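Rather than argue in generalities, we reproduce a single protein record, letters for residues, whole numbers for local backbone shapes, just as it appears below:
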Amino acid sequence: MKTKVFVTLKPSVFDPQGKTIVDALRSMGYTAVQDVRQGKYFELDVEAGSTDEARSMVAEVAEKLLANPVIESYRVEVDDERSQESGVRRQETA
């Protein structure tokens, strides 16, 4: 089952890389860009008996390894073939 994990800094955490990107964009003339928050993206292909099982397993992996829960938040998406057929995407945010 295909899963995706999006990890971003919590809103209260200063993002120096995002600030550098905003400054660069403004110097290039993109003055409408007000803020940038950088993050990480992971794709995991897992064997699971159900969408809920896959979501739970990947959330645990994100909590223990992919994200630092002190300064980062994460969102898990599970692309179940059955869900894709009906156009539904399952998500979990922490």
User: Anything to note?
Assistant: The radius of gyration is 16 Å. The mean pLDDT is 90. The first strand starts at residue 2 and ends at 9.
